[in-house]
Amino acid sequence: MIQVNLVPVVLSSVAAMGVGFVWYSNALFGKKWIELHELKGDKMDKSSMGKIFGITFLVTLVSAYVLSIFIHYAGAIGLVLGAKTGLWAWIGFVMPTSLATYLFTKKPMSLYVIDAGHHLAALLVMGAILGAWF
I need a labelling partner for 97 at 20 to 30 A (CA). Which of 44, 63, 87, 89 fits? Predict the structure, then answer.
């Protein structure tokens, strides 16, 4: 059984949330993301944001935990190899499954690029932190 160190799991999850805050800020892709999702007026309910961010952090913890196991099995010791493991996780699991969802739901490809790019950046950062911790 693999012993997962929860400290880097939590730290990488916090970092991934930070990536999301920057990624979806108005300075980067936030305005375009809102426009593409047509989240205006009553669709832009901010009252449940605390709950949404809380759940998002929990699922990010799950991703970081599983990524740490991938890094262990890959022997990806160090920042660069950890980030590469995050890249491979994105290529193998996130990119193809989310692309299929966007194709079937007929969402704009620009929205896919924004969201998939965020997941890539988050997995690279999480992988780098987790790999550096080994």
Answer: 44
Using DSSP's 3-state secondary structure scheme, residue 58 falls into helix
Asked whether the beta carbons of 65 and 130 are under 8 A apart, the reply is no
Q: Is residue 71 part of a domain?
A: yes
Cα–Cα dist 125/84, whole Å: 10
pTM given for the model:
0.94
Any domain includes 93: yes
Instruction: Determine the Cα–Cα distance for residues 107 and 120; give it in Å rounded to an integer.
Output: 19
Q: Among 120, 131, 91, 134, which residue's Cα sits nearest to residue 19?
A: 120
Question: Which tens digits make up the pLDDT trace of 79-123?
Answer: 999 999 999 999 999 999 999 999 999 999 999 999 999 999 999
Q: Is residue 1 part of a domain?
A: no
The structural domain count of the chain equals 1
pLDDT per residue as tens digits for the range 54-84:
999 999 999 999 999 999 999 999 999 999 9
Q: Which domain holds residue 103?
A: 6-38+47-133
What is the helix, strand, coil percentage profile of the chain, to 5? 80, 0, 20
